[in-house]
Design a protein that fits this description.
This protein is of the alpha+beta class and 646 residues long. It has four domains: 2-171 and 603-641, Orthogonal Bundle (Triger factor/SurA peptide-binding fold); 187-222 and 486-585, no CATH class; 227-245 and 389-478, Chitinase A, domain 3 (Roll); 266-370, Roll (Chitinase A, domain 3). It starts with a helix and ends in a 5-residue tail after the last helix.
Length: 646
């Protein structure tokens, strides 16, 4: 194949270069477990595109959207905008595969088999194939068949082969490497004045009339988001296993098998007063420290309050303010002299003076836990909990999957299904996201999953802490609506502040700009004249990360212009920047050889993407003209708008 590649004309070489540069999305839409399964709610088999006789359905597009939302590669809010380019990418990928098939490129059955073995290793136990029935059953759970799955595997292997061949055919010249090295390692330096809005914002206080006027003029902007009503079904090991009670002999067996876990280590809890005296202390000061400690001990023996004296006199900064109290410490973690005294005392007993490496201590033992084995009676509750988890934790995913299957058929029967499978029911009303779910707490995964559903849809099973799982059923969606002033007043007030802030910032920026011109583009003098801070960025590369300035990025401009070049009113967010190029550092070529291979790879990847995009655009256009590709724009629009709320 390599000889064939090298003998083709330019157009054919470009074809081969791009054929499998599209593998990434193809692997997502064809090999990810679950792709091809019906989307939440009723499946939509409407054809959105036909490429060389192979159809892309609304169902497939919806499933890909769900996968990307679930993997946090896309937020539900942008799903509507993402659908059209996603379909275009799928069409381009399939068109490329179609053209490859026309060229007679193929993958052997042995290669397909080896790839499947890597993709689904569970079908091979001890080197033996589990059989066609197990294979088909596995794929059925993914809502696909053996012929469909193997066809997708074959297509992806073919494209991977072509990408490797195409990549080998890209030539990178030494001049290109040198130019890329220079670009990668060149440094720039700028002086910067930032007009930050924070201080100005604090001075702006909108009047009631301004708030009401802004709301009146912009009422349509103040939309309240859709509010969801949903039923959550929670699988909780503790509650589901409440009826599981091991008999005494089983508890005894578990206890004996885990006896080491129930052995406690010596530990002691104390309070102390420390008067410091270490190896750097003079003899005279040591005598004074000991005398002070002895005086405090005498006060305690005479009935003085240990905690009060510790707060007033202890020189241990960690415990003095707490009345000298320390946490439990296991044996071996305290100073030896301190530890020996602490363990020799009984509860509430106070030591004589104890000299440690830190000084003189007065120690009072509060509590001691000596090494022992917790008896079965004390360990019983813990053992029962673990027994229940052991009985159920591996079964919960199966139970939840079964419950989900019934919910997909009858989403209105959530409570009955929950009762059947011993699942807890939680209801949420008027949910806009971001808060605590009842009995669950915050869960971004659940938020995103519910937000991606249509009415009657069911989430995938989601894991929760403490060996729990949850399913969500979207019962209803109250559409987005315009909020009343009382409901959106904070937003209206914020908008008034920001509007005034922009004007104030613009006024300040204009004043700075005018002064800068008067000063002949002397940025440092202008900053001093207007009492503004000037920052030297330090040297930085094209990543834009400036050592002395966080949050600013000026793109290519600091590298594209000469030293002395000034930029005014450069906006980043709500901040405005004035900056001046003060230096360029030429990296030379001394480090080129160390980076050559990495740079060659970067350039080849870039060329591959550029050629792929160029070729794909032309190929799709040609196949459309030939009638081999048809795209249903109305169907794409319907899929996209199905993710719109309200």
């Amino acid at each position: 194949m390599l000889d064939l590649f090298r003998s083709r004309d330019t157009a054919m070489r470009y074809l081969l270069i791009v054929l499998l540069s599209l593998v990434a999305l193809s692997m997502v839409i064809t090999l990810v477990p679950g792709f091809g399964s019906p989307p939440i709610g009723a499946a939509d088999t409407t054809t959105v595109a036909d490429v060389c006789g192979e159809k892309i359905t609304a169902q497939q597009v919806a499933q890909l959207v769900q996968i990307q939302i679930r993997n946090r590669e896309m937020s539900p809010e942008v799903a509507e905008l993402a659908v059209p380019p996603m379909v275009n990418q799928m069409v381009g990928e399939m068109a490329t595969a179609c053209q490859a098939n026309k060229m007679g490129l193929a993958v052997s059955d042995a290669e397909v088999a080896n790839s499947i073995r890597l993709l689904i290793p569970t079908l091979w136990q001890n080197g033996e194939f589990a059989g066609k029935e197990a294979y088909a059953g596995y794929l059925q759970r993914m809502n696909t068949t053996i012929p469909q799955f193997e066809s997708r595997v074959r297509q992806n292997l073919m494209l991977e082969k072509l990408q490797r061949v195409a990549f080998d055919g890209i030539i990178v010249s030494p001049k290109e490497v040198e130019a890329e090295y220079f670009k990668k390692n060149e440094k720039a330096r700028v002086d910067v004045v930032k007009l930050a809005p924070d201080e100005i914002r604090k001075t702006i206080v909108p009047t009631r009339a301004e708030i009401e006027e802004n709301y009146k003029l912009n009422t349509a902007r103040y939309i309240l988001p859709p509010q969801l009503s949903a039923t959550l079904l929670v699988a909780d090991v503790e509650k589901m296993g409440a009826h599981l009670k091991p008999d005494d002999s089983e508890l005894e067996r578990i206890y004996r098998a885990n006896i080491d876990r129930f052995k406690t280590q010596d530990r002691v809890k104390t309070r102390h007063i420390l008067i410091k005296s270490d190896t750097s202390t003079s003899k005279e000061d040591d005598v004074k420290a000991k005398a002070k400690a002895q005086d405090l001990l005498n006060q305690i023996k005479a009935g003085g309050d240990f905690a009060a004296l510790a707060k007033a006199h202890s020189q241990d900064p960690g415990s003095g303010s707490k009345g000298g109290e320390l946490d439990f410490y296991p044996r071996g973690q305290l100073d030896k002299a301190y530890e020996e005294a602490a363990y020799s005392l009984g509860p509430k007993q106070t030591s004589n003076l104890v000299k440690s490496a830190f000084g003189y201590h007065i120690i009072q033992t509060i509590e001691k836990d000596l090494t022992r084995t917790k008896p079965l009676a004390e360990a019983k509750a813990e053992l029962i909990t673990e027994y229940r988890k052991g009985q159920l934790v591996d079964k919960i995913p199966q139970i939840v999957d079964q419950a989900r299957g019934e919910l997909l058929k009858s989403p209105g029967q959530a409570e009955q299904i929950a009762q059947k499978y011993a699942l807890d029911v939680r209801r949420i009303e008027k949910w806009s996201g971001g808060g605590d779910f009842p009995g669950i707490g915050r869960s971004r995964e659940l938020d995103l999953a519910l937000g991606a559903l249509q009415k009657g849809g069911v989430t995938d099973p989601l894991e929760l802490p403490n060996s729990r799982m949850v399913l969500g059923v979207l019962d209803n969606v109250a559409p987005a609506r315009v909020g009343g002033l009382a409901e959106v007043e904070y937003r209206v007030k914020t908008d008034v502040i920001e509007s005034k802030l922009l004007k104030a910032m613009e006024t300040l920026a204009n004043a700075f700009d005018a002064k800068l011109k008067v000063n002949g583009n002397d940025l440092k003098k202008t900053a001093a004249d207007l009492n503004l801070k000037l920052v030297d960025s330090g040297d930085f590369d094209r990543s834009g990360q400036m050592p002395n300035l966080v949050g600013a990025f000026f793109g290519e401009e600091p590298f594209a212009h000469p030293i002395g070049f000034v930029v005014s009113k450069y906006r980043i967010g709500s901040a405005l920047y004035f900056w001046k190029i003060t230096g360029h550092t030429n990296p030379g070529l001394t480090g080129l050889e160390k980076e050559r291979q990495v740079i060659v790879g970067m350039i080849r990847e870039r060329k591959l993407r550029e050629r792929r995009d160029l070729f794909e655009e032309g190929l799709v256009k040609r196949l459309k003209e030939a009638g081999s590709i048809s795209v249903n724009e109305d169907a794409i629009k319907r899929v996209a708008t199905s993710y719109r709320r309200g």
